Amino acid sequence: MSKSAKVTAPAVEVPQNAAIFAQNLNFTYNAKSAFAKRALDNINLTVCNGEFVAIVGHTGSGKTTFVQHLNALIRVQDGYLNVLGHDLSAKKPDLKALRQQVGMVFQYPEYQLFADTVLADVCFGLKNFGVESDKREQMARDALELVGLDFDKVKDKSPFDLSGGEKRRVALAGVLAMKPQILVMDEPTAGLDPRGKLEVLSLVRQLNQRDGVTVLMVSHDMNEVYENADRVLVFREGTLAYDLPPRELFRKEEEIRAMNLEVPAMAAFCNELEKNGFVVPENCRTVEDVCAAVVALKEARNA
To answer: In terms of domains, do 136 and 158 share one?
Structure first.
């Protein structure tokens, strides 16, 4: 080979149905200083289109750093990351197109409300992405109705005159107006009362199951994680410690508690049932489903 010959790195093969694909992804804060902190350490994972994936881990585990890579709030430093066909390891990925497809809902998103009216707030992102004015109002109407708000009643109100739950819905509508293919949510139910939590999670499940939106939900509430996610990613000190379905993960009670994470109440209950010979189906994770499964098992035994 001549000295002038250029060696080309082999292309990364992204799985066909992958919404998110990470290979050997690393990230270090303050990398060139004495205060360097490794936040992501060799992350390898695939999230398929239409999955509902929960991300958990104690503070400083790397989970927030990872999700901020997904719409390039943090740029790839080392390794490979592909999101919806966008190579985020490239020098100049199309960030505008990426951010139209990946919606980010931060913790307490209502704190980001700022416009004089609900309509103006929901339309803010649409305007920034160049959506024509005659289309913006209809898209805002669709988004507000999707989150359960009456467009005609709230459009001219100040978002600061709404209840806490309504503010959260308006903030979510501003993200959903763009019709993202991936929805990334950081503690979406934080600060809400039980009813508000149920409403938000019901909406997210609807978006996932009916509309096929890929959902990544960062949460510290293991009960919400257990009942809603298809898979759980557990981050620990920058590494991906576990990538498992909820039922399989929370059978590992000792390991989970050793990472200062809680075992969901229904998971612990199902674990006790299994010790006593009652094995409920893997997809039975709510109180209602587990109770129905136990009744069916008892009836089958007594038949």
So the answer is: yes
pTM for this prediction: 0.89
270 and 256 fall within a common domain:
no
Q: What is the pLDDT of residues 101-127, one digit of tens each?
A: 999 998 887 888 889 999 999 999 999
Tokens of 79: 């390794």
Count of CB atoms situated within 10 Å of the CB of 173 = 25
Residues 299, 179 within the same domain? no
Domain that holds residue 297: 264-303
Distances (CA, A) of 191 to 55, 111, 207, 263: 19, 12, 22, 21
Band of residue 155 on the pLDDT scale cut at 50, 70, 90: very high
Q: How confident is the model at residue 196 (pLDDT cuts 50, 70, 90)?
A: confident
The Cα angle at residue 299 between residues 296 and 303, in degrees rounded to 5: 140
Q: Quick one: how far is CA 82 from the chain centroid? A: 16
Q: CA angle, 223 as apex, 217 and 226 as ends, to 5°?
A: 65
Q: Residue 222 in contact with residue 55, Cβ under 8 Å?
A: no
| Distances 292 to 172, 198, 259, 296, 297 between C-alpha atoms, Å | 34, 21, 32, 6, 9
In three-state secondary structure terms, 261 is coil
Residue whose pair of structure tokens reads 């929901």 in the numeric block: 122
Enumerate long-range contacts of 73-79, CB under 8 Å, 24 or more apart.
73/104, 74/27, 76/25, 76/27, 77/26, 77/27, 77/28, 77/31, 78/24, 78/25, 78/26, 78/27, 78/28, 79/22, 79/23, 79/24, 79/25, 79/26, 79/42, 79/43
Task: Tell me the β-bridge partners of 86.
Answer: 83
Tell me how far apart the alpha carbons of residues 27 and 39 are, in angstroms, rounded to a whole number: 6
| Structure confidence by residue, pLDDT tens digits, 44-67 | 999 999 999 999 999 999 999 999
User: Does 139 lie in the same domain as 286?
Assistant: no
CB 205 within 8 A of CB 52: yes
Distant-in-sequence, close-in-space partners of 283: CB < 8 Å, separation ≥ 6? 247, 289
